[in-house]
Design a protein that fits this description.
Elements lengths: L1 E12 L34 H7 L2 H7 L5 E6 L5 E13 L5 E8 L8 H11 L2 E6 L6 H9 L3 E4 L32
Parallel strand pairs: 1-5, 5-6
Antiparallel strand pairs: 1-3, 2-3, 3-4
Helix pairs in contact: 2-3
Length: 186
């Protein structure tokens, strides 16, 4: 039994040239506005995260791109850093021991690997919490985490808008009823 699994990705620099991505075909333009009476419109295509909810971990990982690419990520100070190579996505336990790893193209968004890693890690160990940063803030990730019996602890992503601040945890019997940090909680 493991308390929590922390999930994140890190850059792996490669020494080869980045592979040229094939351009996807342009979809037919969709009609705007409300459909007429009796008109049936084509539904929106299913996203990768929605497909991964019903796929096995191996099927979902086989669908992900694995080639040398240019990746960009914000560092801890908010500046963008770019590299040529790959990205390693890791699930680590409380003691920082890796449980599951996945290697992908550097340009792949972190959230695209969360569901397959969750399923792989759940097959290997029993754990309680999924700890992730704001890049993983998507409804299918929350749903799969809860369906596996875990509690998702994911930072909120403001998506360009204003974030509502989290309410501080209250501790009965204290002067102002608030915990300032984890060290005062004990």
């Amino acid at each position: 039994m493991v308390g929590h699994i922390s999930r994140d990705a890190t850059a792996i620099e490669g020494r080869e040239k980045p592979t040229a991505k094939p351009k996807p075909p342009k979809p037919a333009p969709r009609k705007k506005g409300r459909p007429r009476r009796g008109e049936v419109r084509e539904p929106k295509p299913e996203t990768r995260l929605e497909r991964q909810c019903r796929q096995s971990a191996q099927e979902a990982l086989a669908e992900l791109p694995v080639y040398c690419d240019v990746g960009t990520k914000k560092n801890s100070k908010g500046y963008q850093e770019s590299w040529i190579g790959y990205k390693v996505h890791a699930d680590v336990n409380d003691c920082c021991l890796p449980i599951s790893l996945a290697l992908t193209a550097a340009s792949l968004h972190d959230s695209q690997v969360a569901i397959p890693l969750m399923k792989l890690t759940s097959a290997r160990v029993d754990y309680l919490y999924d700890v992730m940063d704001a890049a993983y803030d998507a409804q299918p990730i929350y749903a799969v985490s809860r369906s596996l019996g875990h509690v998702p602890l994911i930072d909120r992503n403001g998506r360009g808008g204003r974030l509502s601040p989290w309410r501080p945890m209250r501790r009965p019997g204290t002067r102002n009823g608030r915990w300032r940090s984890a060290s005062t909680a004990a």
